[in-house]
Design brief:
With 297 residues, the chain is an alpha/beta fold. It contains twelve helices and 13 strands. The protein has a nine-stranded mixed β-sheet with strand order 5-4-1-6-11-8-12-10-9. Strands 2-3 form a two-stranded antiparallel ribbon. Strands 7-13 form a two-stranded antiparallel ribbon. The longest helix has 13 residues. The chain is globular and about 60 Å long. The N and C termini lie far apart (59 Å). The relative contact order is 0.15.
Length: 297
């Protein structure tokens, strides 16, 4: 049995059409959340959970992602010359985070197809998948729990979040059975973006997965689903109903702080929520927010 999982896969090939025109020439994953691009928060989360081998699935016009995690010797030299050690440390932080690898998706055929592109890199061992749209607050670790459940149960694990039933059509929804742990459930079925009346529960899949390598075999014969794309949810549904051959699927219910940067309004909220808790920004930002909101009453 695997005793340590070290590989993380981060799909980052989307075109970011909801953020046009900002994403016309810049990857959506590079949009800043306060003073770091959203993708760096995701890589930091993976590393904090012990996932130091990171494969990013990219696409055309995504070179900025690779550049961000690479060295910029000219910039480093300027900062050293200026004696600006604080900014130099911030620049080097992204460079030294993890062992970074990149592969292109090529055709935009869905999340399942993007994950399948990781097969050669991952091999025959469990691995994590982290979506860049979801930022999990570092104070509320989620991956640690998911990795522990994967190892102890030898299964695939997805992150679940209770959402308002009116919002379940935006997510994959899980049918579940309870376990002896109130934060862990066995998943008996999954539906991709169901209507509220058809949803098996209000437990939505959010962008964190720890998967057994059998998912690759399933994805290879998964037909296109919603949006004519190969859906990871469809592959997980097959794994959930065939636990004898795939290990089944469990869910960890997340009750912490999550920031959705895939939607314009939620992206703005994420910046504010993270900034108000910063030691260097919160003290000045909080009273300004109070004053500003008072003008709206």
């Amino acid at each position: 049995m695997v005793t340590q999982i070290t590989k993380a896969v981060i799909p980052a090939a989307g075109m970011g059409t909801r953020f046009l025109p900002a994403t016309k020439a810049m990857p959506k994953e590079m949009l800043p959340v306060v003073d770091k691009p959203a993708i760096q928060y995701v890589v930091e989360e993976a590393v904090a959970a012990g996932l130091t081998d990171v494969l990013m699935i990219t696409g055309r016009n995504k070179n900025a992602l690779e550049n961000h995690f690479d060295r910029v010797t000219e910039l480093e030299a300027v900062l050293i010359q200026k004696g600006d050690r604080d900014r130099l440390a911030k620049v080097n932080e992204s460079t030294d985070l993890a062992d970074m690898h990149y592969v292109r998706q090529g055709d935009p055929l869905g999340l399942g197809h993007a994950v399948l592109r990781a097969k050669m890199h991952v091999g025959h061992e469990p691995f994590a998948v982290l979506l860049g749209d979801d930022i999990i607050d570092a104070r509320d670790p989620l991956l640690d729990k998911m990795l522990a459940e994967q190892i102890s149960r030898n299964t695939s694990v997805v992150a679940l979040l209770e959402v308002d039933p009116s919002q379940i059509h935006l997510y994959g929804a899980a049918a579940i059975e309870k376990t002896d742990d109130p934060d862990v459930v066995r998943i008996t079925g999954l539906v991709e973006k169901p209507a509220a009346a058809d949803a098996p529960s209000n437990l939505a899949i959010i962008g964190r997965y720890v998967l057994r390598p059998e998912v690759f075999d399933v994805l290879e014969h998964t037909a296109p689903g919603k949006g004519n794309e190969i859906q990871l949810t469809d592959a997980l549904q097959e794994m959930a109903v065939n636990p004898e051959t795939t290990g089944g699927v469990y869910g960890v219910i997340f009750r912490g702080r999550r920031y959705d940067t895939g939607d314009r309004l939620d992206y703005i909220k994420a910046i504010i929520q993270l900034a108000v808790d910063r030691d260097d920004l919160g003290a000045e930002l909080r009273p300004w927010l109070q004053e500003f909101t008072a003008t709206l009453e």
